[in-house]
Write a structure and sequence with these properties.
This protein has 4 helices and 7 strands; from the N terminus they run αββαββββαβα. It is an alpha/beta fold. The protein has a single domain, classed as NADH:ubiquinone oxidoreductase Nqo5 subunit (Beta Polymerase, domain 2), CATH 3.30.460.80. The strands form 2 sheets. A 5-stranded mixed beta sheet has the order 1-2-5-4-3. The chain starts with a helix and ends with a helix.
């Protein structure tokens, strides 16, 4: 399959799930989906289209936490497709992709701890990076991190 074919096949397979599509270059493609579609879309990219899951990244924005799931089509010239999902802060949760893509387990745990996104049905939601005495509800990569209420001993370290 050619590089162009794999992108067309991706668009065709997921057409009703794609809200917006951006082509940054011939090798980089971004598409936005609703958060309710992430488990379906990730599983289809991974299992049906045989894309390799690279990593996920999270960004706190004024509208909510945006999660970007990066996939590569290594066999088709290394096309990289990024799936973008916005998770509103007021209900900061999304379905985990780790049950179908085990390689996502640790990065979802990191995003949960650092940005406060709860991954529903995650196989191992234990903290990964923060200490046992880390204050609940304080997320170091959130825009409001500096305004967070810390216990007195943590304030002294700032």
């Amino acid at each position: 399959m050619t590089e162009k074919d794999i992108i067309e096949k991706t668009k065709e397979l997921l057409k009703d799930k794609i809200v917006a599509w951006e082509e940054k270059s011939s090798q980089r493609h971004y598409f936005t989906i609703k958060k309710t579609d992430i488990a379906f879309v990730a599983k289809h990219l991974f299992e049906k289209l045989r894309a390799r899951f690279i990593i996920a990244s999270g960004i706190d924005t004024p509208k909510g936490v945006e999660i970007l799931y990066h996939f590569s089509f290594d066999r088709e010239g290394g096309q990289v497709v990024t799936v973008k999902v916005l998770v509103p802060r007021q209900k900061c949760e999304i379905e985990s992709i780790a049950p179908s893509i085990p390689g996502a387990t640790w990065i979802e745990r990191e995003i949960q701890e650092l940005l406060g996104v709860k991954f529903l049905n995650h196989p191992d939601p234990r903290p990964l990076l923060t200490s046992e005495d880390w204050p609940e509800g304080v997320y170091p990569l959130r825009l409001d991190y500096r305004d967070a209420q810390f216990p007195e001993d943590v304030q002294k370290e700032k």
